[in-house]
Amino acid sequence: EAQVTQNPRYLITVTGKKLTVTCSQNMNHEYMSWYRQDPGLGLRQIYYSMNVEVTDKGDVPEGYKVSRKEKRNFPLILESPSPNQTSLYFCASSLKGVGETQYFGPGTRLLVL
Amino acid sequence: RKEVEQDPGPFNVPEGATVAFNCTYSNSASQSFFWYRQDCRKEPKLLMSVYSSGNEDGRFTAQLNRASQYISLLIRDSKLSDSATYLCVVCPYSGYSTLTFGKGTMLLVSP
User: Fold this and answer.
1) Most B CBs within 10 Å: which of A34, A41, A43, A87, as the mutation test of the B interface?
2) How many Cβ atoms are within 10 Å of B69's Cβ, its own excluded?
3) Nearest Cβ partner of B101 from A40, A42, A106?
4) Average pLDDT estimate for A62-82
5) Cα–Cα distances in Å, from A19 out to A13, A36, A76, B33?
6) Which residues in chain B have their CB less than 8 angstroms from residue A41's CB?
7) Cβ atoms within 10 A of the Cβ of A54, count?
């Protein structure tokens, strides 16, 4: 089944404890991206990747890192999480870029205490 | 002016009603337009792309007005299962690598 998977789906952590949210797609998509969704603010892009080893900042990259060592994986790293990073995170992928259907993962709910 | 603006709703309609959502965008150079649907606490899913000539998919019709910089979504014969939040999504520039999402319009269809 073609899909985007994220892990973990739910996470409670404490300020400053490094964490990684994994994202994987099995559709051989080149474009992958991370979004956060907050009440009243909608979906905002954190980082995106046009292909392996090619990443760039989105609208709200502060406090986040990403890497794209393999085509299928695009992990989101929070080196030192803070409470303002409490949010719902979505990974998405598409064949080539933003002009095509974006396939979203199921989301990761993160609470930083 | 915000980049992509939508009526926040909620729109409360009875089954069978016709409902229309509007979305305005600020960048006149915007190239690609989409409507996504998001069920509560779930991931967004593409409902339909919006083409310059307008397009229809069953009960759903999308229109683009470049001169006025707005996009619309019309839902005819509303079903209970149409209850969701509808997101207007715009690609700001040709060749641009990010999307701008509206905050969404919530639709509640009641029996």
Assistant:
1) A43
2) 16
3) A42
4) 97
5) 8, 16, 8, 34
6) 103
7) 12
Residue-level pLDDT at B2: 64
| Maximum CA extent, chain A | 38
* Pair of tokens at residue B2: 């915000």
Is A8 at the interface with chain B, CB within 8 A?
A: no
| Intra-chain end-to-end CA distance of chain A, in Å | 36
Token pair, residue A87, equals: 């949010």
Query: Which residues of chain B neighbour A43 with C-beta distances below 8 Å?
Result: 44, 87, 101
Q: Which of B35, B20, B56 is nearest to B104 (CA)?
A: B35
CA distances to A48, A111, B63, B84 from A97, rounded to whole Å, are 10, 30, 23, 26
Summarize the confidence of residues A59-73 as an average pLDDT.
97
